[in-house]
Specification:
435 residues, 14 strands, 7-stranded mixed sheet, hydrolase
Length: 435
């Protein structure tokens, strides 16, 4: 990144304004957590209410004077707004307040920049930051409006600002090209899983709902999990065995938040496609959050934006330990699981979640007894390798009697590899059901 971000631990004044329009309202408590997650030290919270934001400085003159006094009293280094500011509003506020001003989008981008660990994640964050900064390039750089001049500085006649914007566009184009390559690689991996008929399950949900803790518990992974917003940024995929389903691929994804900046959604499209292409979404919900219902609605909005709204969902109501509730499964009229109440932290209800996953991803199973002659030892070995043998015995003639249970597709593929006919092993009732 060629522009610098300030270090953590800065004293910050937070500004939260209540507007009458529902689509402009934000959560002050969540904003405080965002500021702490970015490493800021909130010194004060300035609250107020307005019908509409002031087009020039967002705040009215009275609130602006109040904000100046708070900044002076706390010697604040940065002012954080819980709202989206236009580039001109940001510049005007910095001129009036004589300190740095950052809006909600810039704050979220800063958190993402701190949390990115993989090369892909860093590229995605840089792309979002560059597109955000491109409209704010002018602030604090008035000399960039002048033409280049002097010995060795006479250029093609463009201003320094135009040169910087051109360099920005070139960098953005290069990142898009590299992310397109990542997207193609992910698509190839998905096609390989499709050929192997391995279902994909993606965890989605509001930030800090407990997705990573649940993911770690189910997959024995070591993904970073913490009680903070956007603890997970880089996607992680793990293979998990589910009873009566076989192997599945489970993906942990970045958390969503109210008014998630559109530029972030665009930048993380390669990552979020894991959710759009999944066979099932596990929508993890903080059951103890008083804003639970609105959080669910916000997640569903983002799912619509990334084209994942048609993917089947299984709701997981997490953190029931904070409610004092017991684990349980909710079902629809057709007895299909719709929600599971669990505590990922305590590990309670996870057996019910696995049961629900089996029901939602259930495949046709072959459950029968076979008698194999000695020359069919290869088939016996393959069935053992698939963990399909439930019981085994041998008779005096050296034949093997096996009780097996495995997905139908796996059994048919196994017979096909050995040029065996299914009708030699499966009962007539199987073929009657098939037709």
């Amino acid at each position: 990144m060629f522009f610098e971000r300030p270090g953590s631990g800065e004293t910050a004044v937070l500004v939260h304004i209540d507007f009458q329009a529902a689509d402009q309202r934000e959560d002050a408590g969540e904003f405080m957590e965002l500021a702490r997650s970015a490493g800021a030290v909130p010194a004060a919270l300035l609250e107020g209410s307005r019908r509409n934001p002031d087009p020039r400085t967002f705040l009215g003159e009275g609130k602006l004077d109040e904000l100046r006094a708070i900044i002076a009293a706390h010697e604040a280094e940065v002012v954080l707004f819980n709202h989206a500011l236009s580039p001109s509003q940001e510049r005007n506020l910095e001129r009036e307040l004589k300190c740095r001003v950052l809006d909600r989008t810039g704050l979220i981008l800063d958190i993402f920049a701190q949390r990115a660990r993989t090369h892909e994640g860093k590229l995605q964050v840089e792309l979002a930051q560059l597109e955000y900064m491109s409209t704010r390039l002018v602030r604090g750089w008035t000399h960039l409006e002048r033409q280049k001049g002097g010995i060795g500085l006479r250029g093609p006649g463009e201003t320094q600002l135009e040169t910087d914007r051109r360099l920005l566009r070139a960098r953005i184009k290069a990142i898009h090209k590299r992310l397109d390559k990542v997207r193609r690689q992910r698509e190839q991996n998905r096609r390989a899983r499709d050929r192997g008929e391995i279902p994909t399950v993606s965890l989605v949900g509001y930030t800090n709902a407990g997705k990573s803790t649940l993911f770690n518990t189910l997959t024995s992974a070591d993904v970073y999990a913490a009680d903070q917003l956007f603890a997970t940024l880089d996607p992680t995929l793990r293979r998990v065995e589910i009873h009566d389903v076989g192997p599945i691929v489970m993906a942990d994804t970045v958390g969503f938040i109210r008014h998630l900046p559109h530029k972030l959604v665009e930048a993380f499209k390669a990552t979020l496609e894991e959710a759009a292409q999944a066979d099932l979404l596990i929508h993890v919900i903080d059951a103890a959050d008083p804003e639970r219902e609105s959080n669910i609605a916000e997640v569903n909005k983002v799912l619509v934006e990334i084209g994942a709204d048609q993917v089947p969902q299984l709701l997981v109501m997490n953190k029931i330990d904070l409610l004092g509730s017991s684990p349980r499964i909710e079902q629809d009229d057709y007895h299909a699981p719709t929600a599971v109440w669990v505590s990922a932290q305590e590990g309670t209800g996870l057996d019910l979640l696995r049961e629900a996953l089996t029901a939602r991803l259930a495949v046709d199973m072959v459950d029968l007894e076979l008698t194999l002659p000695p020359q069919k030892g290869w088939l016996r070995a393959q069935l053992h390798e698939l963990n399909a043998v439930r019981d085994e015995a041998f008779d005096e003639q050296g034949n093997t009697r096996l009780a097996i249970r495995l997905p139908e597709r796996d059994f048919l593929q196994l017979l096909s590899r050995g040029d065996e006919r299914p009708e030699d092993y499966l009962p007539e009732s199987y073929f009657e059901d098939a037709y």
